[in-house]
Amino acid sequence: MAVKKQFAVIGLGRFGGSICKELYNMGHQVLAIDNREQKVNEFATFATHAVIADSTDEKALKTLGIRNFEYVIVAIGDDIQTSILTTLLLKEMDVPNVWVKAQNAYHHKVLEKIGADRIIHPEHDMGIRTAQHLHSEKIVDYIELSDEYSIVELLATKKINNKSLVDLHIRARYGCTILAIKRGEQINVSPLPNEIIQEKDMLVVIGHKNDLKRFEDEGM
Prior knowledge:
Elements: E1 6-10, H1 14-25, E2 29-34, H2 37-42, E3 49-52, H3 58-63, E4 71-74, H4 80-92, E5 97-101, H5 105-113, E6 118-120, H6 122-135, E7 139-144, E8 149-155, E9 163-164, H7 165-168, H8 170-174, E10 177-183, E11 186-189, E12 196-197, E13 202-208, H9 209-219
């Protein structure tokens, strides 16, 4: 069984609310926090505890025992000042992992300087993934690891049907690595060189963005 963790989610808008529900459905303990009574009532059944609180009030955070949580997600919407002050308080209280939703580049830069452990741009990230999917029908999913490297899920085409990984020389020719092959409900992690690919298999591939594009265009 997966180890249950304790999470606190501050801000119960669409982003924070979806995180709260998903973590709770996974069986974790979730403290849901918002300064709006309506939102707290809405998520009371999707959290271990749901409370109305001002996250910029240090005394309120201490009363909630926030420093005992391994992860705190700051998912505050458009109020950048509240997001920054909340993050600053959490880091001053030595919360080990503070993940924060950023609105823009300025917000991101400030969050970096005050010690946010991970900064998330949900609209930006989803926009990139959607654009990649629209760009090519071969791309099923896309994860940007950095400015240069990504992981993509590519749908195997007729061109590579019934060929093994060693036949394709993917690493030698394109500099990419096949992390896994998904076929229906089965996932083959770290496939062997003699693994045969079938059309419509899902290839999970990591590499430099230029190499991935070359593999998609020439190898698939």
